[in-house]
Amino acid sequence: MQIGRRIYYDKATGNLILDTGERSGGVVETTVAQDFATYAALQDRVPATVGIMELAYGDHAQDFKTCNGYRIDVSNGTPSLLFSYPDPSDPEAPPVYRQSLSAEVEAQKQRLSDIELALAELFTGGV
Predict the structure, then answer these.
(1) Is the dihedral of CA 19, 21, 27, 31 positive or negative?
(2) What is the chain's mean pLDDT, rounded?
(3) Are 1 and 24 in contact (CB under 8 A)?
(4) Alpha-carbon dihedral of residues 58, 103, 67, 91, nearest 10 degrees?
(5) Alpha-carbon distance 53 to 108, whole Å?
């Protein structure tokens, strides 16, 4: 069995409270209520003030592997995951949070595909 990570965060600020991490093998999936009873970081929290982001097993695996931090952006009404990545030329630079690199790569692939299609239509006269 493979269980994706569950990220708990403060709904008002987006600050991370707990990341359960991914699990596989002889594991049992827990409920949110069980997590609140089990994890010390959640026990003193009011559940209504805690947001939950559930990711499938393997989601953003490369991003989590290469990032030096992540947080939840709650500013636009729909919580989204933001990552910071180390800058090899300035390792002491403060983190800059942004969309995941994997999402940016997918967006660029789609943009390239759209450009190739437009060029093909242009050169074939729109046929």
Answers:
(1) positive
(2) 88
(3) yes
(4) 160
(5) 25
19 is written with which tokens?
A: 């990341």
Q: Is the dihedral of CA 39, 58, 63, 82 positive or negative?
A: negative
Q: What is the total residue count of the chain? A: 127
* Chain centroid, CA 22 distance in Å: 13
Contact between residue 11 and residue 51 where contact means Cβ atoms under 8 Å apart: yes
Tens digits of per-residue pLDDT, 38-53? 999 999 999 999 999 9
Asked whether the predicted pLDDT for residue 81 surpasses 70, the reply is yes
DSSP of 27-62, one letter per residue?
A: --PPPHHHHHHH-HHHHTS-GGGEEEEE--TTTTHH
Q: Write down the pLDDT at residue 126.
A: 60
**How does pLDDT run across 50-70, given as a tens digit for each residue?**
999 999 999 998 889 988 899
